[in-house]
Amino acid sequence: MASCPSSTSPTGCCGTCPSWTSSGSARTQAGGQVAQAAGVNIQTLRYYERRGLLAEPDRSHGGHRLYGHDAVTALRVIKASQRLGFDPARRTPRVRRLEG
User: Fold this and answer.
1) Phi/psi class of residue 15: alpha, beta or left (left: φ > 0; alpha: ψ in -120 to 50)?
2) Neighbours of 68 (CB within 10 A)
3) Distances (CA, A) of 87 to 66, 77, 79, 92
4) Are 82 and 38 in contact, with CB atoms under 8 Å apart?
5) For the chain, what is the domain count?
6) Domain containing 60 — which CATH number?
7) pLDDT at 58 over 60
8) Is residue 88 assigned to a domain?
9) What is the 3-state secondary structure (H, E, C) of the chain?
10) Is residue 4 part of a domain?
């Protein structure tokens, strides 16, 4: 798992690393970098997008996906829930309310 040496964040990065780029006011990262930081492969990242477990990312002017820092956290939560035996696709009504 990639992590920032200056981070005290539970997500493993302070968001100021050179691999994070500015996109407007938000810090974003390419899909491969997010997948690596979360310990998954890029196909897993895209699969979770298709299933609606990850929000659709913004796009660069060239059409590349640009993920926010919260995508790494979301991926880690999904993987942790799977290790505990939960199916992340089966969200209860309470979880849906929490999601907004």
Assistant:
1) left
2) 19
3) 26, 12, 10, 11
4) no
5) 1
6) 1.10.1660.10
7) yes
8) yes
9) CCCCCCCCCCCCCCCCCCCCEEECCEEEEEHHHHHHHHCCCHHHHHHHHHHCCCCCCEECCCCCEEEECHHHHHHHHHHHHHHCCCCCCCCCHHHHHHHC
10) no
pLDDT tens string 9-56: 444 554 444 444 554 445 778 889 999 999 999 999 999 999 888 888
Using CB atoms within 10 A of its CB, is residue 46 exposed (0-12), middle (13-18) or buried (19+)?
A: middle
- Token code pair at residue 91: 């969200």
* Close Cβ partners of 82 (under 8 Å, ≥ 6 residues apart): 88
The domain containing residue 68 runs over which residues?
Answer: 21-99
6 in a domain, yes or no? no
Residue 98, both tokens: 């929490």
